[in-house]
What does this fold into?
Amino acid sequence: MQHFPIFLDLAGRRVVIVGGGAAALAKLRLLDRTEARITVFAENPDPAIVGITSAQRRHLVGRDFGPGDALCAALVYAATEDAAEDARIAAIARAEGALVNIVDNLEDSQFITPAIVDRDPVTIAIGTEGAAPVLARSIKRDLEDRLPATLGMLARIGKAFRPLAEALPMGARRRDFWAEYYHDAGPRAAEAGEEGVKAALPALLERHMAVAPRKGAVDFVGAGPGDPELLTMKARAALDRADVVIHDRLVPAAILELARREATVIEAGKTGFGPAMPQDEINALMVAHAGAGAQVVRLKSGDPTVFGRLDEEIEALEAAGLDWRIVPGITAASAAAASLGQSLTRRGRNSDLRVLTGHDIDGFADHDWRTLARPGAVAAIYMGKRAARFLQGRLMMHGADPATPVSAVENASRPDQRVFRCTLGTLNDDLAAAGLTGPAVLMLGLAPRAAETALTATETQEIAL
Ligand code: SAH
It folds into this structure.
């Protein structure tokens, strides 16, 4: 981010625009919405500029800009549409301590003007660092369509009502009140104009005051394999209203960013072998926050019901008499299958699918090796990286074909996803050569579709998808 967005208080501050043509007029129209004291320097101003500057706190000076003219100015726009003249103005203005923008000259400007969606006091600034003005305009158009014209009025009236709304306790109840105001009661009342909105607010507040305090609860939410677009809408909604988010380390930052801005975000650790917060501590955290009335999201990678120690956490909540629910997510095996372009089950090949862990609490996990070793068997092996040698040995001992395909999908669905096709006979060496560093799921019995027909027994290949 080269340009950092801020909102500058221009009330009563001096702003200078130099130029009398279309560029200067465009800037003047924008700035005219502020409470700045605006001075335009132009020898031959457009009539529209003359019109706007005849108002209060607007000023037109009918000569060239010169030394001393930018003194005490917060902002100066060089908008003469003449490069040499703009450079001269910018040099003077900078020396006099103003921030300078040269219209259509990103490089020599100290700040840029974003595309603006104005629902004052709600103001949205859109910037693309000058990379794609077309994109900024289309985002602006989308937002203009989406945000009701009454939004500004609702926000203004809402702001004045804030002290009264403090009668509701801070947190979920006050938030519920405002959510209903902005999303439902407010827009409806706005049909009767400003007075309608003002009349509706006290009644709405009274209704919310009468509602019994909300109980805290825990949502066990599946974050999916990592791509934020693979979150369910329920997961989004839960993140949106969370007071506290307790997440596993595998949940990427791009998903955590979707949590409500005020939410307390706590990492509970738990990667395969890394340092982890003890389970008791995680349970205690959930119980403490939900017990105090918070909406807690316990965010787990993939699906919370798959290798997520969910039952232990549910038992802790039930022991404390707290409510909970499960929001399913896309498990790593589903994401890996999608990346391979393969179906997890197939008529005539496998009518069952096994979901295994390479590890369990006692170390390498034991399984029904005889069934897994049969031709056509398909299994998704989680936490299998370090168990590769063990898995390979057990399966071959029970008669599995060394040519059986095994795919490793690392960081499934993420930008850094890698897919490796291996074979059972050389699985351990293949994986060592692959040098996996991220979470990976091994798909026994499946090859990437593109490689399905051309599988060689020995080589490991990274498939670029
Ligand atoms: N509840 C999760 C699994 C948690 S166990 C789920 O349903 O996916 C952690 C294991 O999941 C990792 O060791 C890895 O085997 C697998 N895993 C999780 N995210 C993954 C991803 N994006 N790509 C590949 N494997 C993943």
